[in-house]
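User: structure tokens for this one?
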Amino acid sequence: MDLVGVVASWFSDPTHWAGPNGVPARLAQHIGISLGSIAIAAAIALPLGLYIGHTRRGQALAINLANVGRAIPSLAAIAIAVPFTQMIDPSLGFNLYPTVIAMVVLAIPPILVNTYVGVAEVDRDLVESARGMGMTERQVLRGIEIPEAIPVIVGGFRSASVQVIATATLGAVYGLGALGGFIVEGVAQRDDGRLFAGVVLVALLALAAEGGLALLQRRLSSSRNP
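Assistant:
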């Protein structure tokens, strides 16, 4: 049987769609880990990016942070975090927490850079006009800069989401499971159906995130430039 047939046969087996190790459960786990990691990264990167973009201060810091985040291999970040997270929680500290930490490190750079670039590139004449009308700095940021920068900011989330979804599979090396579990198990068991089914599922999820956020970004851009 060819590879396509093997993968199709794996997907058609109802036992692969039930229980805690079935496709729906692992898909939900993968989405939950990805969303949680992006949310934590956003809580760190968004305020910092808004501050840098609005004040034009610390741009070198943002660039350096982004470069450091991109330079650290995710698998290495997980391995570095494991000894520390295991001391905090022996059960989840070996797989969940280090994976989330690695994904947060991966997601911060695109969100941070796109946020500060988007805000910094807002038309200065528009910003100065708002200030001349008596708007406070917070009102300028909320009422002018953020709405104008939203498409660029969403672009940062788009990039971060695809990277996190694809790279979260590495957590399975440490026993996390999720969709990466199918890939690791497939390699260990020499089961091509399971291996490539995991690859297909991760690819489809990443494409869905990319497509959905690309559509949102396009619509936001159109609304800003009718």
